[in-house]
Design goal:
This protein is mainly alpha-helical. It folds into two domains: about 400 residues, no CATH class; about 110 residues, no CATH class. About 65% of the residues lie in helices and about 5% in strands. The protein contains 25 helices and five strands. Strands 2-1-3-5-4 form a five-stranded mixed β-sheet, sandwiched between helices. A hairpin with a 3-residue loop joins β4 and β5.
């Protein structure tokens, strides 16, 4: 009995997921952690085991879809939930791409090449094994551009509507993708031009004809406006509703992107950038704007093949240039944040999509396959080099753990203090500020004993800790997040001066944290 193609792809996907899970668990057991996955672990523990008002945590934690995706795997393990989600999600991305490929290309060589990329490319492995939200971003980025390309071929607005839905999910996987809409003017214009029934094939001639004919000009304007409504109205309304939700429950429209209690990246990006500046003493030139596009080409030479394949398709070329403009804009707007690996990975996914769409148009398949194979090998090599020389510590640490089993000690201090809290007798109440201490809460076994800012009694505990808490976790002067939390030695001295009945005893200390026992006589 012959196995059908969809079933065959499903079996490959399951094996690939198992491969990712084994790699992810192995790295986790070695001691590799990253801040985003620990943030999801901590918030998941609060949702399912915390006490107090958890509505704000459930509804306003950002990015919201990757956060919800971890819920499925919390029944297995809180600590493994993010990496299991990323492993399964990356496998799902492969399955979507493989099914798209087999519908357009009969040659199994391309499927094998796709499988090699998903098994060996370090960016894919980082996406699958780190527990970060990259996998969902790549899934919906691929689906968004897939439906745009489908519209070019079919001229059916249904695909534009699906692309709009994908854009909504993409924005709620990473809010920075909202800026992608700024660069859709030429894209939407090209879509409108393509939809006109004209004899000319090239977009530039179609545009010239349309603007010189009043009837066609009016039709072009109406279609362009209609497509803007179809593509943008759903993302913009969704963001507006979500901002109103934030205003209602947190008294801040941008709570989900500005508050360290809602998203991990607010403080992490600032601290990483400041630490890098302290180390290097200057802004590194390769991350300067405009040079980003050159870095993208070096990271993803396959994008040059994609551009070549669409060399005679003006509107597709405009589509491919949109992400370039997007990352250049991000570098200018967020000038104190280094571009993370996910924004480079967009071009790998987009280049693979272009190969899927256009590989069958190449006449000399043998030479093209050899070229593609060489470019993929180069692609994998540059992927390792980019991660190894990354400005972001977490990315550099991942490749070191993967290839050299050099485990960073970034979480040692957090694990030590969490282990001490776990060993405390009885059921003591420990006051912590999880804006900066969420990795510790992620490692703590019982979050019900923690007094945190999402609870209504936290402010009362800050004012009178002796009445509410048995222990207090304070950031030391050496802690990189020292300036971003209220619970510091300075605060401790203030409350001792305000209440001479308060007795504070240092119980445990690491490089970044100090745990004090609190008693009120």
């Amino acid at each position: 009995m012959r196995i059908s193609k969809p079933l065959f792809l499903l079996l490959i996907t399951l094996v690939l997921i198992l491969y990712y899970v084994i790699c992810a668990v192995y790295l986790n057991n070695l001691g590799y952690f990253n801040q985003e996955s620990l943030f999801y672990v901590e918030k998941s523990k609060i949702v399912f085991e915390g006490i107090g008002d958890r509505l704000k945590v459930i509804g306003l934690t950002s990015p919201i879809f990757p956060f919800y995706a971890t819920f499925i795997f919390t029944v297995i393990s809180y600590n493994l939930a993010p990496i299991l989600a990323s492993a399964v999600g990356t496998g799902l991305l492969f399955n979507i791409m493989a099914n798209t490929l087999t519908k357009r290309l009969a040659d199994d060589f391309y499927l094998l090449l796709l499988l090699v990329v998903f098994m060996l490319h370090p960016g894919i492995l980082y996406m699958a094994c780190s527990g970060k939200s990259m996998y969902l971003q790549m899934v919906f980025f691929f689906l968004f551009f897939l439906n745009i390309f489908k519209f070019y071929n079919s001229n059916t607005t249904f695909h534009v509507s699906i692309a709009s839905i994908c854009l909504v999910v993409l924005v709620f996987c990473d809010y920075k993708f909202i800026w992608l809409t700024l660069f859709f003017l030429p894209l939407v214009l090209s879509i409108s031009i393509q939809s006109l029934n004209l004899s000319e094939k090239e977009s530039i001639f179609r545009l010239f004809t349309s603007f010189n004919n009043p009837s066609l000009r009016r039709k072009l304007i109406n279609k362009t406006f209609a497509l803007y409504i179809i593509i943008f109205i759903l993302p913009l309304v969704s963001v507006l509703i979500y901002k109103m939700l934030n205003l209602t429950h947190a008294a801040d429209l941008n709570y989900f992107i500005d508050s360290p209690y809602a998203t991990w990246s607010v403080l992490a990006e600032k601290i990483d950038y400041n630490m890098l500046l302290d180390t290097t003493g200057h802004h590194k030139l390769p991350e300067a704007s405009i040079i980003i596009s050159l870095r993208v080409i070096l990271f993803c030479p396959l994008i040059l093949v994609a551009l070549y394949l669409f060399r005679q398709k003006t509107y597709q070329i405009l589509t491919l240039f949109t992400p370039f403009a997007f990352v250049e804009f991000l570098r200018i707007k967020y000038d104190k944040v280094y571009l993370t690996h996910q924004y480079y990975m967009l071009f790998l996914i987009l280049a693979l999509l272009c190969v899927i769409f256009r590989a069958n148009t190449v006449k000399n398949q043998t030479n093209f396959k050899i070229l593609l194979l060489l470019v993929i090998v180069l692609q994998i090599y540059t992927g390792y080099q980019f991660l190894d020389k990354s400005y972001i510590a977490e990315e550099h640490h991942f490749i070191n753990v993967l290839l050299k089993t050099e485990v960073p000690d970034t979480q040692d201090s957090n694990q030590d203090i969490a282990n001490y809290i776990n060993s405390l007798p009885g059921d003591p109440h420990v006051m912590v500020d999880d804006a900066v201490a969420y990795p510790i809460v992620a490692f703590v076994g019982n979050v019900r004993s923690m007094i945190m800012p999402y609870q209504q009694n936290f402010l009362s505990a800050v004012e009178a800790p002796g009445k509410y808490a048995d222990y207090m976790l304070v950031a030391s002067d050496k802690n990189p997040a020292y300036g971003y939390t209220q619970l510091t030695k300075k605060y401790l001295q203030q409350i001792r001066n305000a209440d001479n009945r308060l007795y504070v005893e240092k119980k445990y200390e690491t490089d970044n944290w100090i745990l004090y026992k609190i008693e009120q006589h």
